[in-house]
Write a structure and sequence with these properties.
Subcellular location: Membrane
Strand order of the largest sheet: 1-2
Strand content: under 5%
Helix content: 55-70%
Distance between the termini: 54 Å
Structural class: mainly alpha
Domain Amino acid permease/ SLC12A: 54-468
Number of strands: 4
Membrane topology: Multi-pass membrane protein
Number of helices: 18
Radius of gyration: 22 Å
Keywords: Membrane, Transmembrane, Transmembrane helix, Transport
Main location: membrane
């Protein structure tokens, strides 16, 4: 064991632990003056090229994607507007907890090349870390395919003569290029992608309020909560009555997980390539949940206000929907031209999320290679510090998006969202267990006061959310086959 800046670190894993000097500059320590890749003998070293604005927009870009812009339409069609709104608010509680758990750990040990499985190995169990690492990589790789599929769905809105396979190929090649160059280029691209997304969602919320209050050019008048009365706020799920309404909310809660799955981890995975992580990681974590509350809370409410749950254009098993519910609502309001602009902006959100997920999946695989949980070839990096073999391997799994060529886009999107969501819930359970073990270790050694970043209500809130997450995970199975059986 080596001691760096007051923190005990295992030999070979001290890369990236540092402190600010008297001039305010972040000074990073290395093990024996060498890079992590040289210490482990398994690969090269990544570079700290992500600035504060990059890391904040990376988290924002990964969290706000097709789950809100496309997947919310499927929830609305299935169970109605009230469960949609309540589900997103409920899921944000889980996300806030997981985000803070990870932020506390990685701020304490912001080491290069070390990803979440390393902390599981250090504080819980090496076999669990091995399983979690591959589970994370699998989830991120499938999410790349999900975003490419969503992009094909959105492009089909314009009914172009270009086949879906060609659009998917273009989508995949662009995100591969952005991830294979230097991490600073990736961060800059993600910053601008996420900026477009930020402006789009804020504009849509304002526009939705205008439509709600009667400002649309057609004769639909003041909408208010008209669609909450007809066809109704709740669409009973599986059975009628109160039980059916509760199952509708529970189904929406589970489905809403897709919009957030693996998003809190984006900040943690980028910590090793972030400038001054002990300053920038807490900053991003604090702002993350409030942005989600505004975007998902108000966004999901607006969707249920401007689009009725029985609109045939919404994503469902009976349709091959090619539009976001926001685009449908704008078209219903009679605002000509704007629906095409918004659809294009929503398309960039799919590109942004796919870009972020490819980055995260490749870093998981790279980190496992450094710790011996994956073949050493995945630890190789380019002269720009990019783990290019891990990027290519993760990208290759994303080519499953070509399933969209021979199946309905809505069906393929449901496949990918289901399998990635259940993997994400498993990962969150392990993250919370790891945090509780991490905190117990600090308490045992009387080091809790040394935490650079602390969050309120801990560890009690983590125990509560851990129980909720396990309950949600147990409920995932009853609805996984819903579309195949005709219930969704």
């Amino acid at each position: 064991m080596q001691r760096h800046s007051g923190v005990e670190v295992e030999k070979g894993y001290s890369q990236g632990v540092g402190e600010w000097d008297k001039n305010g500059a972040y000074r990073e320590e290395t093990y024996g003056g060498t890079t992590l890749g040289e210490v482990t003998g398994r690969g090269g070293d990544t570079h700290r090229g992500l600035k504060s604005r990059h890391i904040q927009f990376l988290a924002l870009g990964g969290a706000i994607g097709t789950g809100l812009f496309v997947g919310s339409g499927a929830i609305l069609a299935l169970v109605g507007p009230a469960p949609l709104f309540m589900a997103y608010l409920s899921m944000m509680m889980v996300v806030w907890c997981v985000m803070n758990n990870l932020a506390e750990i990685v701020t304490y040990l912001p080491m290069k090349g070390i990803t979440i499985p390393y902390f599981v190995k250090r504080y819980v169990d090496s076999s669990l870390a091995f399983a979690l690492g591959w589970n994370y990589w699998y989830a991120y790789a499938i999410l790349v395919a999900a975003e490419a599929t969503a992009g094909a769905i959105l492009l089909d809105y314009w009914k172009t003569p270009v086949p879906a396979g060609a659009w998917i190929a273009i989508f995949m090649l662009v995100i591969l290029f952005l991830n294979i160059v230097a991490v600073g280029i990736f961060g800059e691209a993600e910053f601008w992608f996420a900026s477009i997304k930020f402006l789009t969602i804020m504009g849509l919320i304002i526009l939705g309020l205008v439509i709600m209050l009667g400002g649309s050019p057609n004769d639909q008048g003041r909408l208010g909560f008209r669609y909450w009365n007809d066809p109704g706020a709740f669409t009973p799920y599986l059975v009628d009555g109160t039980t059916g309404r509760f199952l509708g909310y529970w189904t929406a809660f589970v489905k809403a997980g897709f919009a957030f799955i693996t998003s809190p981890e984006l900040i943690a995975l980028a910590a090793g390539e972030t400038i001054a992580p002990r300053r920038n990681i807490p900053k991003a974590a604090r702002r993350f949940i409030w942005r989600l509350a505004i975007f998902y809370g108000l966004g999901s409410l607006i969707i249920g206000i401007i689009v009725p749950s029985d609109d045939t254009q919404l994503l469902s098993k009976d349709s091959n929907a090619s539009a976001s519910p926001f685009v449908i609502g704008i078209a219903r309001a009679g605002i000509s031209g704007l629906n095409h602009v918004i659809n294009a902006a929503v398309l960039t959100s799919a590109w942004s999320a796919g870009n972020a997920f490819l980055f995260s999946g490749s870093r998981i695989l790279y980190g496992m290679a450094l710790t011996g949980d994956a073949p050493s070839v995945f630890g190789k990096t380019s002269r720009n510090g990019v783990p290019y073999v891990a990027v290519l391997a993760t990208w290759a799994v994303g080519l499953l998006a070509f399933l969209n060529v021979s199946n309905k886009g809505a069906q393929v999107f449901a496949w990918f969202s289901n399998i990635s969501t259940i993997s994400g819930f498993i990962a969150w359970i392990v993250v919370m267990i790891t945090y509780l073990r991490f905190r117990s270790a600090l308490v045992y050694h009387n080091l809790l006061h040394t935490l650079p970043f602390k969050t309120p209500f801990q560890p009690y809130f983590t125990y509560f959310v851990l129980g909720v997450d396990e309950f949600v995970y147990s409920g995932e199975g009853y609805r996984c086959g819903e579309w195949e059986e005709g219930n969704g």
